[in-house]
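DM between two lab members

TW: hey, do you still have the Copper resistance protein NlpE entry open?
JB: yeah, one sec
JB: this one, 151 aa:
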Amino acid sequence: MNKTIINTLCITLVFLITSCNSGNKKETQITEEPQQEVEMETTGDNSMTSLDWDGVYEGELPCADCEGIKTVVTINSDKTYTIQETYLGKETTPIETKGTFEWDDQGQKILLSNDRNPYFVGENTLTLLDRDGNKNTGELESFYVLRKVMD
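TW: and the structure you got?
JB:
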């Protein structure tokens, strides 16, 4: 009998406690403050920001009326360049062109002054592009790539 009374008292206490707590609930209003938009300038990875691009590049470019054009391009961190071109199989002196360059909006190509074709800047390579900034394709595609020889 004592067990029945104790069980009844326990159940009654549980009901009393839960019913007392349910009446004391306070409603809290949560207000969210509008978040301010923060503009952050993002600089993605590109040739200009991610590669060690300044240095000396060389290779042999295709030539329509000679054996090839030995080409040495030096690009400097101050945005200046020098190009030395030697027409192989012809008795000519090397042609040297100096100027400045700018990066394209994507930071992938250098746009040379002196009405020169742009170059795509890759990992230890410069690829000569056509006047419109597109890669040359076809059998001779690999001949338009200059390799970095010195920093």
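TW: got it. Residues 41 and 49 are 14 Å apart (CA to CA). The first helix runs from residue 2 to 23.
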